[in-house]
């Protein structure tokens, strides 16, 4: 009788040790392993979906900008620019001067179309983001894409300002301020008409669905 009891106890001890070994080497019941694998797979799928959405958004923004064709441009010398541009266009784009408010070409322009750089022809802003700022200069709350403009700090006045220029030829365009439409970007790109060339939209482009830029 005692001998049988000892055999049973020995089996229990062996079973306990075996179970402890399994736990120590990281083995788990098949059910829990499948559940963990399923959760991991779900997380991976969710990550792929988020990345796909982000990529789609980026590609959409690129495609909107890429649909706009820009003319080829070869950098010009100062002498060539003086012949190409009017005196006020040269002063604004090359010397960073500012034209007179309310006495410039596009401050009250309400036509649909593109605003290109007067120097190189690169498309910069559209009429879709133009708004009435009351300043007397053409104002926009967003460029076509951030890649089409450049910015730097301007210390020409007592206080620093954010200067805006064309990213392709570096022609001075104007300045950007933080008092634009709050329901949009909150930015006001205050530009000189002399730095811009307006290209009116064709009937075909006017009838096309509006695109978010």
How would you sum up this structure, described in words?
The protein is an alpha+beta fold and 213 residues long. It has two domains: 2-66; 78-207, Metal Binding Protein, Guanine Nucleotide Exchange Factor, Chain A (Beta Complex), CATH 2.170.150.20. It has helices spanning 2-24, 30-66, 78-84, 87-95, 203-207; strands at 113-117, 123-126, 130-131, 139-140, 149-154, 161-166, 172-177, 188-191, 196-200. The strands form two sheets. The protein has a six-stranded antiparallel β-sheet with strand order 3-4-8-7-6-5. The termini are far apart. Its EC number is 1.8.4.12. Residues 78-201 form the MsrB domain. This is peptide-methionine (R)-S-oxide reductase.
Large-scale geometry: globular
Total separate domains: 2
SSE succession: HHHHEEEEEEEEEH
Q: Can you count the beta strands?
A: 9
Q: What name does CATH use for the topology of the largest domain?
A: Metal Binding Protein, Guanine Nucleotide Exchange Factor, Chain A
Q: What's the CATH architecture of the largest domain?
A: Beta Complex
Which structural category do the helix and sheet elements fall into? Answer: alpha+beta
Distance between the termini: 89 Å
CATH-wise, what's the superfamily of the largest domain?
Peptide methionine sulfoxide reductase
Please mark out the parts with pLDDT under 50 across 5 or more consecutive residues, or reply none: 1-8, 18-63, 209-213
Strand content: 15-25%
Q: Which oligomeric state applies? A: single chain
Strand arrangement across the biggest beta sheet: 3-4-8-7-6-5
Mean pLDDT, nearest integer?
Answer: 78
